Amino acid sequence: MSLCMSFILILSLLAFAPLCFSYKSFGGYLYPQFYDHSCPKAQEIIKSVVAQAVAKETRMAASLLRLHFHDCFVKGCDGSILLDSSGTIISEKRSNPNRNSARGFEVIDEIKSALEKECPETVSCADILAIAARDSTVLTGGPSWEVPLGRRDSESASLSGSNNNIPAPNNTFQTILTKFMLQGLDIVDLVALSGSHTIGDSRCTSFRQRLYNQSGNGQPDYSLDQSYAAQLRTNCPKSGGDQNLFFLDNVSPTKFDNYYFKNLLIFKGLLNSDEVLFTKNEESMELVKAYAENNDLFFNQFAISMIKMGNISPLTGLKGVIRKNCRRVNGIIKQ
Fold first, then answer.
1. Alpha-carbon distance 18 to 264, whole Å?
2. Where does this protein have compositionally biased stretches of type Polar residues (predicted)?
3. What are phi and psi of 278, to 5 degrees?
């Protein structure tokens, strides 16, 4: 009997080994120890720069976390979001989800510059994004996880991919879920990763329709608490003020916790893409309730889902390059 139980235990450990230690990708593996010999101070350097940036501006944590999301949903986690327009490259920064919204590029520049001095042409921009996202989460009180590493950088960008693949604030629940599923992510990942909206801000233009014309009939969204809606309308008028910022979580906007989910339960999710998790699908509704009730459950699943998202189509082995400057392909001279 004991021999049988030992065998089952070994099988269980082997089943979880890929999650804990490595992720198979086309052309090679991602694993946390990837830079242990080639650049042992890499993670320490990244953490230090991110910590300084977040100390200077708390909002930067959410911005860096978002960069990793927006990178992975377009062509995989390959650092393509960081490329500026140059030559044949049309930057993803020009896309609707990123224009006047994606930020934190200067922090990535600072990290890359420090890493190039420490260990030239070794640490990819894609891996910097993955580590910075984890560090930003931890610095604001969220969970930690070992980041599988070994991604390489793309030499191209996809403006159309950025416009089409990244979920939009006004998308329906089914559209959002479909966009996640196309990346190999499921409904559990969708709800857990949406919890990143526990920190950060959103612009008036991203949720204005909920305040004035949700269904095209000139009426506000019925699933938005009306006192909260009135509060939002004071700084988000029918026209103008597009760039005015609002906390995604108005209870603890700078702390990574489960108040995002608690807000959804009382119809105070800021974005339509937030509140539909509670109102449009029974399975996602139950997940929202579970995470609102149990912060540890949310943290554990968020870490698992972040590792899973970070494994979307990475370039490994001989694919891709290590860009010396995250903004441009190697050999391209800055104009």
1. 34
2. 156-165
3. -100, -20
Contact assessment for residue 166 and residue 179, using Cβ atoms and an 8 Å cutoff: yes
CB 204 within 8 A of CB 235: yes
- CATH classification at residue 248: 1.10.420.10
**DSSP string of 216-281, one letter each residue:** SSS---TTS-HHHHHHHHTTS-SSS-TT-EEESSSSSTTS-SSHHHHHHHTT--SSHHHHHHHHS-
- Choosing from 70, 152, 179, 268, which is the catalytic residue? 70
What is the SS3 assignment for 40? coil
pLDDT band for 11, please (50, 70, 90 cuts): very low
What string of DSSP letters covers 136-205? HHHHTT----PPPB--BB-S---HHHHHHHSPPTT--HHHHHHHHHTTT--HHHHHHHHGGGGSSEEEGG
Q: Does residue 70 have an active-site annotation?
A: yes
Q: What is the pLDDT of residues 250-259, one digit of tens each?
A: 999 999 999 9
Cβ(229)–Cβ(210) below 8 Å: yes
Q: Which residue ranges are tagged as binding site for Ca(2+)?
A: 71, 74, 76, 78, 80, 92, 198, 249, 257
- Binding residues for substrate, by number, are 167
**Spatial CA neighbour of 278 closest among 264, 257, 293:** 264
pLDDT digits (tens, 9 = 90+) for 174-212: 999 999 999 999 999 999 999 999 999 999 999 999 999
Q: Is the dihedral of CA 99, 163, 203, 70 positive or negative?
A: negative
pLDDT at 19 over 80: no
Contact indicator for 282, 288 with CB cutoff of 8 Å:
no
Are 297 and 183 in a shared domain?
A: yes
Q: Is residue 178 part of a domain?
A: yes
The answer to whether residue 197 is domain-embedded is: yes
| Burial class of 279 by CB neighbour count within 10 A (0 to 12, 13 to 18, 19+) | middle
